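Dear support,

Our group has been running a series of protein-ligand predictions, and this particular one with 6-O-phosphono-beta-D-glucopyranose is the one our PI (initials K.S.) wants archived with full inputs and outputs. We had some confusion internally about which version of the output was final, so please treat the block below as the authoritative record. The input we submitted was:
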Amino acid sequence: MAAIIPVDDFDCVVFGATGDLTLRKLLPALYHRFRDAQFSANCRIIAAARSDLTDDGYRERAERALRDHVAADDMHQETLHSFLALLRYARTDGAKADGFGPLAKLLSDDADRVRVFYLATSPDLYGTICRNLDKNKLITPQSRVVLEKPIGHDLESARQVNDEVGGVFDENQIFRIDHFLGKETVQNLLALRFANVIFERLWNADLIDHVQITVAETVGVEGRGEYYDHAGALRDMVQNHLLQLVCLLAMEPPLDLQADALRNEKLKVLRALRPMAAHDVGHLTVRGQYAAGAVHGKSVENYATDLGRPSNTETFVALKLEFRSWRWAGVPFYLRTGKRLAQKVSEIVIQYRDVPFSVFPREAGEMQPNRLVIRLQPEEGIQLHLMTKDPGPGGLRLRPANLDIHFEEAFSIRYPDAYERLLMDTVRGYATLFMRRDEVEAAWSWISPILQAWEEAGDKPRPYASGSWGPTAAIGLIERDGRTWYEAFEEN
Ligand code: BG6
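Confirmed final output from the archive:
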């Protein structure tokens, strides 16, 4: 049974309140937490944006968004009505120190309650909004600021954003969101590794041959072309989400789950990544860009058409990373992520080594090494691939079989969206699932030389048909090492 632990009353101020993230993710997440009575009707959600709207005008937009993004079964008229009553609108120009009047007025009545400033705006504004919050004396000891990724565009700009925000908020008031960490199945990696004795001793170079991480999407750039074209897949997905998965998979057991204990271990992983030298980038990474094709039988255009102009930005990246550490030396991690691929699936594959010696005759059949497959989405679950005896007469023949858990079937519970957990954690001041400044910068330190080498080489991304698994060079990347991408999900 899920346990709902109520949080203290709070004011949550959302900058960028008319934007896609707020309407598609933040409001539905808050609605669900309110519906489950995790916070009371005394809380306020203050929408801050530049548009000229009234409270009721904003509530109408919010209601439309909730109807679009919350399952009909979860929408209850009375709850919806009470939830909309928590919303206030404060016309705010975050870029201007004198653009905070209505917000300051709203906040003036209670300086003691928890105050969450959620910056769902363009990252260029993070520093300015924080400075202006300070100038308007809106930052109280009980305040926190939540920053969406991307924090910066490279190491230098990330440092600048961190300096600017850090100039007015203490590090323990800054919550840098990577929403992958809020996914139930990503947190389940901690349970799998540290609440079971059978994996941890086998979680190293002695028995693991390699690790694969696939985060595949079927969507294109949708309405986010301007942001995405400036970022590309390496910055948009690898610098944060995929490297966070690498951290949780590769880290040493933390002392406990306090924020710093966990983040110290993740930081060590990032620092143990072997830096990619410029002359290696060409063969250790593959960039791709989607061409026209069909996804789930529906024809789609190429990236340039979606964007409205030609571009050299990658919508797919595959890479091989290696570690400088005792636990992982010699165990490559192969990562790939892209848009307009054949399926939406996020999956981690831990590929174990071959048995050292086979006692079975050749006629027993091919022996496949063990594999642990962790499916993050959809159909969250874990499979352990084993060899078993093929039942019945005919000698001792081998046959692969799976131990299989499907979480939704096993626990019959709706999987909450990542933002639900993360928003409540910011109110509680619980920072374990957020990134610390040094982590973000360590991730950029590893990524920046790759970006630089790509830029210097001036290569164009390789085209791949929409609905495929990316450019063929991505297959070459792993097959060169005598390995293959695990693609069992294609069978589903
Ligand atoms: C976001 C990226 O952080 O994550 C998007 O900016 C991507 O480009 C999204 O589509 C994927 O998240 P999820 O939760 O749908 O796997």
